[in-house]
Every structure is written in structure tokens, then in C-alpha cells.
Amino acid sequence: MSADTLIPIVVSSVGAATPLIYAATGELVVERSGVLNLGVEGMMLAGAIGAFAATVTTGSLALGLLAGMACGMALALLFGVLTLSLQTNQVATGLALTLFGVGLSAFAGRDYVGKVVEGMGGISIPVLSDIPVLGPLLFRFDLLVYGSIALAGATHWFLNRTRAGLIVRAAGESPSTAHAIGFKVISIRYLCVLFGGAMSGLAGAYLSCALTPMWIEGMTAGRGWIALALVVFATWKPWRVLLGAYLFGGVTVLQFHAQGFGLSIPSEFLSMLPYLATIVVLVIICRDPKIILLNQPVSLGKRFHPDA
């Protein structure tokens, strides 16, 4: 395979992986605090339409990205009120949140179908961007691609090297103990849920304003569920989320290039590849429960109320 063929595939894979990194990293922090939010898909869709509508209306991509984050946080706040304050079942509430986000985005996006925005251009770094092969592979991506890598590193540092990260992990491992020594577990979980919503909203915003700068109903196409699977695949480790996202991004892009390589594979099967890869990876990982239990927060998905 020549460099002229390989470079576009790698660049496309990195772009496809970027929204997965944001959504999965946000959900990882949520789950490390002991909360399981299955509404990532709905929050991504809300962020996608919110960002696109704001960008079309104001002409500012920066305001669009902020609007996408705000929309994701709004749905996350709704989830937090229901599960943390009203103590509803987290799994059922997360599924309902996804259904709500799908319907809300479809309704809100009716007037934006067929419209396009300028999108986000890559950053050209003098000298470095002109290096053969390495230039296009490393130094011509947009700001959010580099931001996703920085986010993974910052999340790893936060969870493992800071007192606040230790408190978040304590809330996920033993909330009753954390409460007993004076930490406000519910408040901590609220902050983590809002952070996860902001990152899911940003992931959706990247889809509608950068990766494919247009609004299409249901444009996340299951990426929120893949992001959830990535957290398990990464065994709740931020750097592994980065690796897994690029793996799934590569599988996603492969479906668009496979037939160009002369492979006589039905297009329907190629469209299944990202989801098939998700199932295969989860099956392989879950064959050994020790791998999952090694880093899984002990209180993940379990309701906690300080007065209980």
C-alpha cells in the first residue's frame, strides 16, 4: 500500500475516532464516580443539533461548540436529577434519555436538514506540516483532534495524580465511606455527570460541525453505544480509551475503502463492521471476568443516598 493511499485512511480514521474519544472519556469519568449513564447517544445527538443550529444562526463555530456542550449538559442534568436526587434506576433512565435525545434532535433539526456549515479546517504548522508523510499524519489535523489527545492525558492525570481525582474514585468505589469522612458524594457525582454530558455534547458537535458539517437525523449512528463499549474495552483507563477509539475509527473508515481495494464484499456487511468489532471485542474481554473486575468501580450503577 502506497503512502498516497495510506495517509487518507489514517487521517480519516483519526477524524472518525475523535468524537468517540470525547464521548467515551466523559463517560469514563462518570462511571469512575459510580454512575452508569447509558444516555450517551441521546446527549451526542442533542449536542450535534444544538451546535449546528447555533453555528448556522450565529456564524460562529466556537459558539456552536459551546452550544453543543450546553445541550449535552442539559440532558445530563436531567439524568442527574432523576437518578441522583429522585433515585430512579440508572439503566432505565439512561435508555429513556437516549430515546428522548433521538426524538428531540429529530424534532429540533427539521428546519436544518440540507443546510451546511463551513466546518473546521486543519491547523497548518510551518515546516512541520510540510514534512513528507509525517506532516500530513501528525501536523495537519484540526484543533479538536489534538484536544481529544490532551483530554485523555489530562483525565489520566486527574484521576491518578490529584486529590480531586482520588475523591471521584472514592465516590465510585465506596460512596458510604466517602460520605462518612465528609465528602459530598451526590455533589461529586453531579459534577461528573455534567462533565460527561459536556463531552458527549462536544462529541456530537464535532460530528455535525467538523467531521460532516451538516445536520442529518440520527447522524451519530450508534456511536454513543460504541463509546459506552469503549469504556469497558479500556477497563476504565483513559489511555486505553484513546487506543480503542483509533481502532474502532479505523474499522469505521475501512468500510469506505474496502471496495476500492477490490474486495467483493457486500456494502451491508461493511456497514456492520464497527458494531461487529464492538461485539467481538467485548466478548473477548468478558471471557475473563478478572480483566473487567480489576478496574470496574465497585459501586457502578448502584444508587446511593446519604440519608439511607
From TrEMBL:
Its main location: membrane. The chain crosses the membrane at residues 6-23, 35-55, 61-84, 91-109, 137-159, 188-208, 214-234, 241-263, 269-286. GO terms for molecular function: transmembrane transporter activity. InterPro entries: ABC_transp_permease. It is found in: Cell membrane. GO terms for cellular component: plasma membrane. Keywords: Cell membrane, Membrane, Transmembrane, Transmembrane helix. It is a multi-pass membrane protein. This is ABC transporter permease. It comes from Derxia gummosa DSM 723. The lineage of its organism: Bacteria, Pseudomonadati, Pseudomonadota, Betaproteobacteria, Burkholderiales.
